[in-house]
Amino acid sequence: MTMAYIEFREIDKYYGSQHVLKKLSLSVEKGQLATLLGASGCGKSTLLRCLAGFEGMQSGRIFLDGEDISQKDPRERCIGMIFQQYSLFPTMTVGANVEFGLRMRRTPREERKKLTGEALRMVDLHGMENKYPSQLSGGEQQRVALARSLVTKPKVLLLDEPFSAIDAKLRKELQSRVKSIQRETGATCIFVTHDQDEAMRMSDVIHLMKDGVIEQSGRPEELYASPRTVYAAGFIGNYNLLSPEDCARLGLSHSEGAWAAIRPETIKLCGVREGDVTGKIREVLPQGNIVRYFVDCGGVILEADTLFDSAVELRKGDLAGLLLDQSQIVHPAWE
Predict the structure, then answer these.
(1) Which terminus of the chain is more exposed, N or C, with fewer CB under 10 A?
(2) pTM value?
(3) How far is 58 from 207, CA to CA, in rounded Å?
(4) How far is CA 278 from CA 249, 301, 306, 321, in A?
(5) CA torsion through residues 185, 87, 51, 160, sign
């Protein structure tokens, strides 16, 4: 059987009596950008730190490129890591920060300069070698940290919520840059985030975590369109989650005894007489070019997203019909 580039096999990790990772197994292919997505405390950063060698495990094994690295010293694993904190040396220039890892490896001076220049060009910071971290913006400092991790050509690059302290516009720019560099270099990356939108934009594959286990894995579009569990549907895609009782109230008889989930953008607002169900607008929430309506349908609150149209504006208290596309309703398992 062919082994994946990275394999976690039945990883158990405790902090005292707290069972953080529970017989967790997953694999990452070479050249893939895989994202660990989940709420705070689900174990995603702990798993990353186990791979890097910063945390020990109670049981389980980790393989990298066919080699068991479970007991290897972190310095021998050939893994780069970028944290939320930039962790740059304040008294060193940008160039010295980037080439620090090469110095530790005793790389010859001329090669250090060449590789440092290449890494800085990759993150669009060429010519800033002599500046200090205090002279850079937050986004520039994060790019220095990225260059420092890339310059040693690690087998795997780990990114632990690296953009969470950066403003929204710059965050999107850095997301695009990292994805572009990853494609250009063919690097294998594992990205950690709690932000589903970030995961959808960045990932080749998403591993959704819950309470120390993998809840669901797949391509972003798979998790978005076909959540297998109620938790996955609630975490990705902003689904309307409908209990069996809710389904009965809405007349979804084919869903009797099962949970149902439907995305807000698949619900169409229309006239009262044309709708599958009728409801009263309880709240209107503008979201840029999208308007989200919260509609009370006999005690069941449905969220419906529409493109902003000033000519068609429903207000709080208005009655509206809702068209429910039956083909868009999924039935996740309750777990």
Answers:
(1) N
(2) 0.89
(3) 22
(4) 12, 11, 17, 5
(5) negative
